[in-house]
Write a structure and sequence with these properties.
single chain, about 220 residues, alpha/beta, 7 helices
Length: about 220
């Protein structure tokens, strides 16, 4: 008489594989890009990763309310209160507690140290509101980017998702999407269109692509 098959729960090949990785999103402000990620998760666009934690560098960030509404745990790590080293130590502690595999910066306003980024090499994503290498680096954030675009008179701008290293906006590019600049644009109108037409589309797409890559590497036989 042949041996009975192992119960499903005892098959080592099946129990070791995951179908989602854990994602933490770092924020500082209103959280529109966080909302794009939450919406993508709910619609199934982001399905190889799950947002398990939102960390804010600002205790008053509206992004925290967006996360709470979606049932996602939140925490605060404020550099003003803890200092840069203290805030990074707090973030690392939280990432470890929630077994985070991938970090997404969605309007996070602090520059992470070399020590921090090296621990998560090619595991930290950032969204930047221009077509890198144009209008990027120190001082180029938020409306400052769009002001510079209009002042220079370029006709095409856009957004970039890239990996994060110790150089501001210096990591490898993952995805870019172009957006046309209109003659009637103000920095505010251009910012809104870049978010709507580019940022909210490519950030979830990049998060899914990197999540799937991590899963595939983890589940290799």
């Amino acid at each position: 008489m042949g041996s009975l098959p192992l119960p499903f729960s005892e098959k080592p090949e099946e129990t070791m594989k995951r179908n989602k990785i854990n994602i933490a999103v770092l924020v500082s402000g209103g959280g529109t890009n966080l909302q794009a990620l939450i919406d993508a998760q709910e619609s199934g666009i982001l399905h190889s990763g799950k947002i398990v934690l939102v960390i804010s560098g600002n205790p008053d960030a509206y992004a925290l309310k967006r996360a709470e509404k979606a049932g996602i745990p939140t925490a605060v790590a404020c550099a003003k209160a803890l200092g840069r080293e203290g805030a990074e130590a707090r973030i690392l502690q939280l990432l470890d507690t929630y077994a985070v595999d991938l970090i997404v910066l969605a309007g996070f306003m602090s520059i992470l140290s070399r020590d921090f980024t090296s621990r998560y090499d090619h595991r930290i994503l950032n969204i930047h509101p221009s077509l890198i290498p144009a209008f990027c680096g120190v001082g180029f954030y938020g409306l400052h980017v769009h002001e510079a675009v209009l002042k220079r008179g370029v006709r095409i701008t856009g957004a970039t998702v890239h990996f994060v290293n110790e150089i501001p906006d210096g990591g490898d590019i993952i995805l870019q999407k172009a957006v046309r600049v209109l003659d009637s644009d103000t920095p505010e109108s251009l910012q809104k269109r870049v978010m709507r037409q580019a940022e909210w589309k490519i950030l979830p797409a990049a998060a899914e692509a990197v999540s799937l890559k991590i899963l595939n590497e983890e589940n290799k036989p």
